[in-house]
Design brief:
Layout lengths: L7 H5 L16 E2 L7 E2 L6 E8 L11 H7 L3 E7 L4 E7 L13 H18 L3 E8 L2 E8 L3 H15 L13 H12 L5 E6 L6 H13 L1 E8 L1 H4 L6 E6 L2 E6 L3 H24 L4 E5 L4 H9 L8
Parallel strand pairs: 5-6, 5-8, 8-9, 9-12
Antiparallel strand pairs: 1-2, 3-4, 6-7, 10-11
Helix pairs in contact: 3-4, 5-6
Length: 308
């Protein structure tokens, strides 16, 4: 039986499991969706610190040629890494996420992934904020240092998640995905890390324009949450399939139906793959039936340096 809702205690317990993966710069982020796609994160920005004499072994790319010409001896520009950077987590809690066949629903897994990411980046000194959206509305959490942003984000996740139910009183809002991206642009001006955590449903041509705009000046990662039943329907005869408030009775013993359903899922993933590849956006697929912390470590932890 898939777990349908998450509690604050569930999310707080993930703090000690937010280890073994990193969003730090120069950590390769591999997308198993594309097979070949890899991206290097910009990470924190750099502030100019000082000019100093060139010493043998210095990177010649750091030579300040104007100062060198003016002073008659080689000088290099020294930079220091900014102490932190804002990390913005966009977490989908729409009714389309209220589906799961094993372990947990997509909405629960999205909340777990967001909590793991928030605890991890906060432990490394980055500011954490987020946008949590559902048919109940949109919560905006401005990036804050240490645990302040994490606490506010977890509270919003639990509120939206616990409000999910199959018999929603109003129809799903198709424009929520795009509105969340628009609001993200208010906080992510440059050199931010923006993480989209969603099943990708309801994307439009406007979605890709908004994502492209965000990716132009920030690091953008898409975490694609899916249930294995969406990819491979079992041969169990007649059954009722439900997603949110939508239900349909089908005969799953029909091989042609199962093939067409699987082909539709593959095509949906392919669309995400193509759009991401064109914009150099890594896509990390996360299944609902497996432990999300272990999946994150497998996807973005395997080539980490020990110190990260």
């Amino acid at each position: 039986m898939a777990r349908a809702w998450v509690t604050l205690d569930d999310l707080l317990k993930l703090d000690h499991r937010a280890r073994g993966f990193s969003f730090l710069p120069r950590q390769p982020v591999h997308s198993l969706l594309t097979g070949r796609h890899a991206s290097r994160l910009r990470g924190r920005g750099l502030d100019f610190d000082e000019l100093r004499h060139y010493y043998e072994g210095d990177d010649t790319r750091t030579i300040d040629w104007a100062a060198t010409a003016r002073l008659g001896t080689p000088y290099v520009r020294v930079y220091r890494e900014e102490r932190d950077r804002p990390v913005l987590l966009l977490v989908d809690q729409r009714v389309s996420m209220f589906f799961g066949s094993k372990r947990a629903t997509k909405s629960v897994v999205a909340a777990e992934v967001a909590a793991l990411a928030a605890f991890r980046v906060a432990s490394l000194g980055d500011r954490v904020g987020g946008i949590v959206y559902s048919e109940q509305g949109i919560d905006e959490i401005e990036p804050q240092a240490r645990q302040a942003g994490v606490r506010r984000l977890l509270g919003a996740l639990v509120r939206h998640n616990n409000a999910l139910k199959a018999d929603v009183p109003h129809p799903p809002d198709a424009g929520l995905y795009d509105e969340a991206l628009r609001r993200a642009s208010r906080y992510a001006k440059h050199d931010c890390l923006v993480v989209l955590i969603s099943d990708g449903s309801g994307q439009t041509p406007e979605t890709m324009k908004l994502a492209t705009g965000l990716a132009a000046h920030n690091d953008l990662i898409a975490i694609f949450v899916y249930d294995p039943l969406e990819a491979d329907l079992p041969d169990i005869g007649r059954a009722v399939l439900a997603e949110g408030d939508r239900q349909i009775e089908v005969d799953l013993s029909a091989a042609d139906l199962r093939r067409r359903f699987a082909a539709g899922f593959v095509e949906g993933r392919a669309r995400i793959e193509r759009a991401a590849l064109q914009r150099a956006i890594p896509v990390l697929p996360i299944r609902t039936d497996l432990d999300p912390a272990q999946q994150l470590r497998a996807l973005i932890g395997r080539r980490m340096r020990p110190a990260a």
